[in-house]
Structures are given as structure tokens and as C-alpha cells.
């Protein structure tokens, strides 16, 4: 039986959203066991007793890591936090994957320092799947901020892992891999990106060259490799712009008189089309690639829906034995 | 009389859009002379003879720098191109500012190598004014790609110039300056950004700390300082996301049946509200800050409207004697 360790206390809607998500997905994944870590009383209030069985277990913990906590210090000091105890379950082989909606930095630290990186991987990288204009399967971008400082070899390894993920988990045949850069030409960028370009070109990846920020969400590339700093800026700029635009549109629709409000009702289908096209939830959470088990994060403000999809995503990662594959492929490499 | 040298051959709609923009703005700026550089015949066809007078001059040139041209090589080889001849006019004091819609790299090269950087400025930086959710005056971001490689001192100088611009040209009192970084906390980022943070904090700027990609377009900061690589990624990600979303919304409105189309008509006011709120044209073009004259670029696909606004922006930069101010403030600094 596959076993997923779930931090039930992370995120704005914890533990309710997490419990709801687990209850929603449970019957679809009969070969998977969900282990919830968190406040026993709070969880019991929300979880009908008859739901606790072979497929659903609760491990009581007494502490919670908050968004304000300094990540590395938090995982050292809050030994009995839901996140840390869950991570230790994975480390000790009592669970196969770790899922949290909590403090991203702390979760990365749990992945890197408790669960540990795969031998041969220099630096784990954080990889979400984002929606794209011309592809229902979206695209992967890695690293979006696990590393403030990157080297060309890291970028190559991230691209290799993400390409494999795109193939196995998203079903993209021969994924097109691009490098996020400040121009399209081969020689663009600083030394880091020029070197990364060379490594990607020499690799056996399906490398299609540089991609610029404005092409990210078109779906031109299935996998975008980037240094962790720029990747973080790109991801947040995209999220921020789309949030600002959609809020402003909503404001405009509500503040332009009655006929506009009628119009807003009439375009409901179109808006829900748009929503489903750019629905980030359906692709699951962001995966910390390069550690000894799937470590997956979704937005802290998620409700049960993204949690449902992320649990299915984790289950698929376990089915496809992604980590074993990485261990095999990278363990023979020299350590950097 | 102020004199603006205008590359009439750059951009998709050249020379028509440029001539139209000049004719539109001319009467509002009676103390300014517009010098158009480009193909004599093409310009004459579009420009009524009686318009050529003290306020409007045409300087015939025989070559054009294309978007495909390698910038530095192009400005060396195409000596009689509209852009290079215009730049030389500025260098020789026959014009006070340079404006083009053409090849951005070539225009930056004209600014840096022909017009020359201001003594005391280590590296000129490219600075657009972008629309913001909570401010009609938008915000400035610098550098968005003139430099692939940045140093902390460059970022400080860019912030200083942009802050002065925000005050004098955009009328923002005590502009709030932020550093684009991968997190909000003081110690975020790589060495470059940690060092830049310190320099900004020690400066006499109104520094409000780090800003993340998702906060850029909220208007939280009046001036965003960034290394040129990340700034380029952020700018293009924002542009790309907004273009993809607006196109997708349009598609959805057209492909969801008759009632949706009726709805689309009814929300026209709301959409035009939104358009005017996020209208990039009204803020003018991107300024190469740190060279001996205003060098300004607008989008290659611009029609007369952005050109009109950019010419007014350039005129204001000349009125406010921005360059003299920079020369005075930076010339006493040690060269890096």
C-alpha cells in the first residue's frame, strides 16, 4: 500500500480543507493510505470516526509551524510539529511522500534536511505545473525559488528531472525543454545562462533553446528550466498580474451601472471557460524535485479541490516510481 | 528651442505612425522642434509640405536598422541609418533627445556608445513606467534588460535616477523605492541582492525594502530597482500574462453562443475602463537612464497614440533638465 504523510495543520483552511480533500479522494485511490498529522482534537471534530480505518490514520502532534517562522530554525525547534513529524515518517520509511500547505521554506527544509537529497543531485529544485494557453497539460517550470543562487549544472539536472516528470506524470511525449533567458538568441544572458544553454544543448533532452518571459504561458515549451531567483520572479509576476487583472475586471463589471451587471451575468459561461482554462488546481502542487521522496506543496489558501488534485498527483508520482528512476539515473554521477 | 531627434523608420508602422504622432503633438509643444530621420520619399508622401517649418525638419537617411540586426554591429556598419544619424545629431548637440521605435539593442548601443554615459554612472539602465492597480501614475522599474550582469552599485544608481524621475516627471512626492527580490525579508536573495539591499538602506532614498514579483503591479512601490536580468524576466512575464489573459477572455466571449456575445456588448464600458486603467501608452516610453541625453524607446508595434504620449514625456524630461541634474549629482562620484 502506498502511504502519503499529510501535514493537516498547514494553510489558511487547516485542518478542514485538508480533511475534506482526503475524504473526497479516498475512494478513488483504494490502494493508498492517508496519514494525517496534527491536533488530535481538531481533527476528530471534523473527521467522522467511521472514516478512520486501514486507509486513513491520524497521528497526533502538538505543534504547528506558522508562515512567520524562520524555516530552518522552525524545523529544528518544533520537533513535534505536524510537518516535522510527517517528514520523519517519510525519512523512516513509514510513509512514501510528504504533502503540506504550510510554510514553503520549512517544507523545503524538511525535504532537504530530513528526507534528504538524492545522491548525485547537487540541489533539489521546486517545480509547479502552470496552465498554458495552447496546451491543456500546462508546463513545468523549475526552479521557482528553492535556490537563491544557481549553477549551470543545477539547471541541467532540474531540466532532466522535469522532463522525465512531464513525460511520465503529464503524458507529454518528448517534452520540449527551454531555458528562461533575457532574449531568444543563443548567446543571450549572463555567464550562468550561457553555460546552462551549452549544457542543455549538449544533453539528450529535447532542447528548443531560450524562452523569454512573455512566452512562458503560451505553452511553447513543456518544461522551462530557470535559475531559482529568476524563476521565483517569473512565477510571482505571472501570478500577480493575473490576480490584479481578474480583480480589476471584476471591479469594473460591478461599478459600471446596471447594464454592465446584466452583461456580466450573460458572460458567465465565458468566464467559467476562462477559469477552467487557467485553473492552476487541476495540475496539483509544486514538487520539490531531487529529494528521496515526493515532497509536494500547494497554496496555503487552497480549499479541498486543489488538495484533491494534489493527492492524485502524488499518487501518480508513486505509481510511476519517479524517485527510484531519479535515484538510478543520478546516483552514478560524480557529486559536485 | 528644444530639439527631439526622431528615428522615423523604426517599428512596424513606420514611418506613418511616427509622422502621425508628431503631427498630433506639434501644436501642444510650440517650443519644440521635431527632427525626423528617414527615407525622404516615404516621409514626403505622408507629410504635407506645408507642415515642414521651423518646428518640423526632415533629415534624409538611406539605411534602416532592422529588428534582426545584431545591435553593436548594426550601429557600426549602418552609418547612414535613421537611428545612427539621429544619435549623431544628439552627440553633436544638434538635438537634445533621441526617440526610436526600432531595434531596442541598437538603440541602447546608440545611447551608450554614441551619445555616451554620464560621468559617474557605472552602467545606464532601461526604465519603463508601468501601470499599477492602486495608482494612476504607475510605477518605474529599472533595469529591465540593458544589462545582463548587474552589480549592487549599479542597482543603487538606477534607483537614485528613477526616484528623481518619479518625483520630477511623474509628480510623486518622496517616491517609495523597493528592491525586486525573491522574498520580503531583509536577508532574502543572493549576494547581489543582499548587497544591493544594504546600499539602498544606507542611501537617502525612501527605501521600503524588498518587493516580490506578485506585488509589482499593485502600486506598492513607486520605483522598483532590479538587476537587469530579473527585471527583464519580470517585465516580459507581466506583459505576456496580461496579453494571454486578455486574448483568452476575448476568445471565450466570442465562442460561447449568442447570449455571451450580447453580454460582451453590455460590458463594453467596463472593458474600456480596464483598458484605460492598464493603458501602458499614457506613461510614455522606456528611458535609457544614465546617458548624456534622453534616449527613449516605445513598442515597435505602437500607433500614433503611444508616440504622442512619448513625445510629451521627452519634452517634459527636457523641461525638467533631468540630464543636467544627473550630471551634477553623479559627476563627483568615483568611477567604478
From TrEMBL, chains A, B:
Keyword Transferase attached: yes
InterPro entries: FA_synthesis, Phospholipid_synth_PlsX-like
Keywords: Cytoplasm, Lipid biosynthesis, Lipid metabolism, Phospholipid biosynthesis, Phospholipid metabolism, Transferase
Catalytic reaction list: a fatty acyl-[ACP] + phosphate = an acyl phosphate + holo-[ACP]
Main location: cytoplasm
Transferase as UniProt keyword: yes
Subcellular location: Cytoplasm
EC top class, as a word: transferase
EC number: 2.3.1.274
Listed pathway(s): Lipid metabolism; phospholipid metabolism
Top-level taxonomic group: Bacteria
Similarity section: Belongs to the PlsX family.
Subunit details: Homodimer. Probably interacts with PlsY.
Function: Catalyzes the reversible formation of acyl-phosphate (acyl-PO(4)) from acyl-[acyl-carrier-protein] (acyl-ACP). This enzyme utilizes acyl-ACP as fatty acyl donor, but not acyl-CoA.
Classification via HAMAP family: PlsX (MF_00019)
NCBIfam families the record matches: plsX
The name this protein goes by in its record: Phosphate acyltransferase
